[in-house]
Specification:
The structure holds 2 protein chains of 2 kinds. Chain A has 19 helices and 17 strands. By secondary structure, chain A is an alpha+beta fold. A 5-stranded antiparallel β-sheet of chain A has the order 2-1-5-4-3. In chain A, a hairpin with a 5-residue loop joins β3 and β4. By secondary structure, chain B is of the alpha+beta class. Classes of the chains: A alpha+beta, B alpha+beta. The interface between A and B is large, with 48 and 41 residues.
Chain lengths: ~750, ~190
Amino acid sequence: MTFPDAAMIRRRRRRERAVLITVLALVLVFGFLQGWFFHYESELPLLGNLLLIALVNVNLILLLLLLYLVLRQLVKLVFERKRGVLGHKLRTRLTLAFVALTLIPTIPLFGVAVQFMSFSLDYWFSAQVEQSLAQSVELGRGYLRQVQEDLRAEAAAAAAEIFPDGAGADLRIPEVSLAPAFWSRHHVCGVFAADADGTVLWSAWKDPEWARFAVNVARAIHERVTHREDLSEAFPVALGDYGEALLLLRSLGGENHGRDAVFYLGVLRPLPSDLSSKLSTVVQGYQNYRQLKLFKAPLKTTYFIAFSIVTLLVAFAAIWFGFYLARHITGPVQSLLTATDRVAHGDLDVSLHLDREDELGLLMASFNHMVRDLRSGREKLTEAYRALQESHEELEARRRYMEIVLANIGAGVVGVDADGIVRAMNKAAEKMSGVRADEITGRHYRDFLQPEHLDVVKSFLRLYQISRQTYLEKHVQVMVGNRPLALLVKVSVLTDENGRHAGAVVVLDDLSELQRAQRMAAWREVARRIAHEIKNPLTPIKLCAQRLRRRYTAGSGTEGTDPVLDECTETIIQQVDHMKRLVNEFSLFARMPEAHPQPCDLGALAQEAVSLYRHTYGNIRFHLKKSGVFPVLHLDPDQFRQVLNNLLENAVQALDGGDGDVEIRLDYDPILRIARLECADTGPGLDLEAKVRVFEPYFSTKEKGTGLGLPIVAKIVADHNGFVRVRDNEPRGTVFVIELPVVQMEGAEPTA
Amino acid sequence: MRKAFFFAGCLLLVLMTVSEPAPARNKADIADLKVFADPPSLKISFRIDNCFNEEMEQAIQSGVTTTFRIRIVVEKDGLPYVRERLVDTSVERTIRYDTLHEQYLVSRVDQPASFLTTKRFDEAKAWMSEVRDLPVIALWRLAPEQTYLVQVKAELSKAQVPSFLRYVFFFVSLWDFETPWVTATYTP
């Protein structure tokens, strides 16, 4: 969505408004000028016509421009609607409402006005009005005819008085003016005598002042006579300030002279000025009426055009005003919508231009204030988020550090919540328990612990219930899988800041190797002391027994030898030898020589040992299995020959003289780089205690066993950084497993 | 805004094209044009036919003062537009009906008796439409053996209607007329 520049839109609207108002004003001014020129067109014949044409055209152009501007707004509205510009619906409704409000009264008013004008014109030009006006004119005419008749009588009387002898070719013109009594007898103001050509020969005026109209009268008489018009009719003569007068010519020479009269007598009577004026008004009115009637149809058309133009002007102005008002109302709404949309899209830099002080202006100011507050809030929020993120990163680093610590410490750590659900477990704990953390995390400890292990947990729970101490510690011996473990279990009960129980952390320390080493050291010390303390008296005891035997055997002769003595001394000597051998073994165990590792083929050593035992014990089946690739190891061959002998001896003794199978397996794990030697027998197997103590010195399940064979094995393997353990054989018997690290040596390639 | 002015310009052009003078409704014509020497002047006589129609007669009888203008041009014969113009004049004749006295008043400035009255409309129309022996140029101004063109044209000069009806006449041309130019030659 694009957001047009609000300032540019405002400037453009202001310019449009100015143009529209100017055009409207121009239309009015030019319309007025046009009307003015119509009134004075006759006074400005050429220029007036040109100006009129120009004005009419300019007015038409301006009207069309107005139409264009209004239609343009309409088209813009349609396009806004098509484009889906925000606020177009409200603007369309408002515009339509304003236009409807304008057109609904204007159009009927226009129709009524046109109809009313048509009716009025028809009424004005009705026969009744015309008849009244015509009769008024006729009244005037009647009056004039009456005046004419009077004049005719006056002319006859005046002719008889002035020319008492009658008219003839020798008519003599009176040489003196008429007596005042004449003017009082005759209601005329002038008398004229003219010849047959219309030339005035004599004239007499009632008022000498009027003599100045003599020329007018003479010309009128001349024209009248010259054109040989009907002289029996009186005709009007203009008398300047005195208005109009009627002049009647009477031919002199008798009735039979007619138009061929030799002389004419004219009498002049002025019409009363007020009457003349009134008659003129009546006639003018009648004439105007008839002219209007003549132009009734075009007049109607003209009025229709005038009404249409005014109506259009009103409609255009109203429509534009409707647009203006709609925009005035919807403009801020549109701005608000646009701004809200921008705010909704996350742009809080928006600010509305405040150019009004009404309620909408207040709303826009409130909006600006709200956006400012939002912006400020967002900045604070961003700041808080940044701080939170830093804190989170720090916590995460700490957590990771703790995880690394937990993962790398030798002790196993298990976290359990108040409900007994396992929440955490480190790698050492995984290694000790043989289960993966992701398998048990989130599960209750009862769901996966074996009954034997569960007993340990219960013992701790009982201890906690009794002691209510938050730290508990206990040594336990457990079997994990088929591996015995001696563990120091430390339990720390967790409480939160409110003192509520929050679970426990269990720390498991594997003490198996430590215990074994401690036992081994203790037994070595014991062996050394026993060897030292017992070995010394054995030689004198044996020598004494031998001396006793020799003395008493030599002194008494062969037949005199005491069999008891002989037997006892023999037994003493044998037991002393046995004890000496025993002490030697003790001494050997106590002073195990230091290993001298060298490249050694353990397979060959195994083969050699198996071959020896296969010949010795025919009833036992000895097997040697070797994986495809087995490396040359860095071992002390003499000590490992001892190891193999001890393991095979132990296996043979486990079979206890019976037949069975003894198998030596040599295997190599290239991934872990571990060489594995397993010695499996099919004997009765070992119980749990025996499995735990089998590598302890002097622990033997056999009556005559020294209990040193397997400890020596464990010692030699430990000296070679290896590991020995015992597990059950399938389906029966025992397997001793020795795992030795393979050290890469130069030139020491694995052998097939 | 430029579009608005362009639009207005186009409109003006259209209006100029369509706003020609309205064609005359009367097919008036000059008839019987005669050019003759009547020393000391060259005179012409002619008649204007069909210069009155019914509406015009009604208007005149309603009191509308009506004036004919007769244009007379005398040129030496030659190429058009470059002919030497000796005379370019016009005479006017006006008719008015006096409703009160029921008579027509005709003013002819070209005639000795310039102001005529009659009660007969036909006579008044004849006075308006007939031109007799109207001197146009002094004969001494005409060179011998030179052909001259005498052109005559008549038109309605104005109809003096009341001021409130003038705008109607501006838009509605009821009865104005204009004859074509009629030419006669004269060679002394």
